[in-house]
Amino acid sequence: MFRSIILIQYAFLLAFGFVSGVVCFQAFSLDKSMKLIKIVDSRVLELADVSIWQSIIPLIIWIVFVLVFTTHPFLQFFARMVVAVKATFFGFGSVFLLTQQESILVYTVWWFPFQLIYCILLLALCSVFGSKKVGSNRKYLFNKRLFITLLIAFALICTLEILVISYIVR
Question: Of 89, 42, 37, 24, which is closest to residue 62 (Cα–Cα)?
Fold first, then answer.
């Protein structure tokens, strides 16, 4: 029962973040939207001139932010907030791509599936560090197996994303 509640909370967090990004896009002017997109993930603006590092660096930054907050016992709530911000940018970038008339293929093949998978993996990364009550004390545990599995999943998805971007650009 507890796990299903967590899954519902995570699904709500992703949905709320995505919708918030859509609403934020409507509140910004196009110039300000493009400036924000350029800061967070410039690949959305121009996919033709993307280097491998432009795909890897933003992902590593999101992973590091989540790990910094997840591994501290009193700041774990902020790790989920980082994922909510990522989901908000996911919605923000989605609306931007959908308003660009030539970007439907880019959105359906590249942006939507990969950003959704990254958000789900980041939420899974939030559960790498947990606590267990042992007697009257709390024992904090780092799940190394889950962490390594998630890093491998991130690497595989990032590699697949780079291949899809090279296919779309051609």
Answer: 89
Strand partners, 130: 141
Q: Is 72 a residue whose pLDDT tops 80?
A: yes
Terminal Cα distance for the chain, rounded: 48
Backbone angles phi, psi at 137, to 5 degrees: -110, 165
100-147, pLDDT tens digit by residue? 866 788 888 999 999 999 999 999 999 888 766 666 776 777 888 999
> Whole-angstrom Cα distance, residue 101 to residue 86?
24
CB 1 within 8 A of CB 73: no
Could you tell me how many residues make up the chain?
170
What is the pTM assigned to this prediction?
Answer: 0.90
Mean residue pLDDT of the chain comes to 88
Residues 6+ apart with CB under 8 A from 10: 123
The Cα–Cα gap between 66 and 129 comes to: 11
**Residues paired with 139 in a beta bridge:** 132
Phi and psi for 103 in degrees, rounded to 5?
-105, 10
